[in-house]
Design brief:
The complex is a heterodimer. By secondary structure, chain A is α/β, with parallel strands linked by helices. In chain A, about 35% of the residues lie in helices and about 20% in strands. Chain A is globular and about 55 Å long. Chain B has one domain: Alpha-Beta Plaits (2-Layer Sandwich), CATH 3.30.70.20. The chains are: A alpha/beta, B alpha+beta. The structure holds thiamine diphosphate (TPP) and iron/sulfur cluster (3 copies).
Chain lengths: ~250, ~70
């Protein structure tokens, strides 16, 4: 009965070679790792590893270039879409993506984000929305929910004085240059599968140079939310998803 | 009958986040009482109910689970 199933013939899942073997520096249970992995799996499945160039942000995922087994370029804080624009225009046949947090993409880099989408740059933007500046200690981000506590809004975000949380994906979806915009999550198996399909679609669209593809992933930050990873995922479902509903926001016209 | 599966967990890379444990439909996984060299309790198999569905592996942020399933 204890026949050994562990042999290559029965293999159904292993870490993709489009990720390096380095140990991720992310906190336990952080969605950044899962988001990296599905993007790497898409690159692997489309067999475009040698044709893909990624741009890393500033934020917890600043070291993304250690983990993606593709050519990578680090950008100054928030400037990834501008750097990706340059790369894509020099190498129009390459698959170019940025990977950015909400502080990077929706605060310091808002201008670069909006204008890259408005120009319809043929890049994929992967946007990790954890409602906070993770790397620097949990400060309030533009995406922080109303009432959500952060190190710079210790009594909760007060929209009167601090403004409302910014739905930047809905905002860029308004721009004619944005071809595809969707919001996903990676905390549960079904969400991981869906998010991966969305990223795959976006990468495939890039082949036809139709415009910017924007994939938001609502994610957790157990360390700064001060919760266990499993609690943070539950909190995310209860609090983030009602304001940031999952699903496609802009899909290509038939 | 469901197919039988098995998982191999790279315990040195596991960070004990327990995300895989709540994703397993057959309660195959639990956290060890031992810790790895980084001081993390790690995921372990506690029964032979695995069907090789790979749910645990695809939610693992650190890609430490490899999954097998009988043909
Ligand atoms: C020009 C500049 N301003 C500010 C900082 C400090 N800083 C580093 S990361 C960061 C925010 C990161 O938050 P986010 O983009 O949400 O990513 P996360 O860490 O949550 O993944 C800030 C403000 C910096 N490094 N450079
Ligand atoms: S601080 Fe938050 S976003 Fe950064 S690695 Fe830790 S859990 Fe992830
Ligand atoms: S999800 Fe991965 S890192 Fe987390 S406990 Fe399970 S095997 Fe370990
Ligand atoms: S492969 Fe499926 S059944 Fe087996 S341990 Fe993982 S989640 Fe559980």
């Amino acid at each position: 009965m204890s026949e050994n199933l562990v042999n290559p013939e029965n293999l159904v899942y292993k870490k993709t070679d489009a990720m390096t073997d380095r140990v991720l520096h992310y906190c336990p249970g952080c969605g950044h790792g899962t988001a990296h992995r599905i993007l790497a799996e898409v690159i692997d499945e489309l067999q475009i590893q040698d044709q893909t160039i990624g741009v890393a942000p500033v934020g917890c995922s600043v070291l993304a270039y250690y983990y993606f087994n593709v050519d990578m370029q680090e950008a100054a804080h928030g400037r990834a879409p501008a750097v990706a624009t340059g790369i894509k225009r020099v190498f129009p046949e390459k698959y170019v993506f940025t990977y950015q947090g909400d502080g990077d993409l929706a605060a310091i880099g808002t201008a670069e984000t909006i204008h890259a989408c408005n120009r319809g740059e043929n890049i994929l933007v992967v946007f990790i929305n954890n409602g906070i500046y993770g790397m620097t200690g949990g400060q309030m981000a533009p995406t922080t929910l109303e009432g959500m506590k952060s190190s710079t809004s210790p009594f909760g975000r007060d929209v009167k004085s601090m403004g409302s949380p910014l739905k930047i994906t809905e905002l860029v979806a308004q721009l004619p240059g944005t071809y595809f915009a969707t919001r996903q999550a990676v905390h549960k198996p079904a969400n991981v599968r869906k998010a991966k399909r969305a990223i795959k679609k976006a990468m495939e669209y890039q082949k036809h140079n139709k415009g910017t593809c924007f994939v938001e992933i609502v994610s957790n930050c157990p360390s700064n939310w001060k919760m266990t990873p499993v609690q943070s995922n539950e909190w995310m479902e209860e609090n983030m998803f009602p304001f940031y509903p999952l699903g496609d926001i802009k899909v290509p016209e038939k | 009958m469901a197919k039988r599966g098995d998982v191999v967990i790279d315990i040195e890379k596991c960070k004990g986040c327990e995300v895989c444990i709540s994703a397993c439909p057959h309660e195959v996984l639990s956290l060890s009482s031992e810790v790895n060299s980084k001081g993390y309790h790690y995921a372990v198999k506690v029964n032979s109910g695995c069907t090789g569905c790979a749910n645990c592996a695809i939610v693992c942020p650190d890609a430490v689970i490899t999954v097998y399933r009988e043909k």
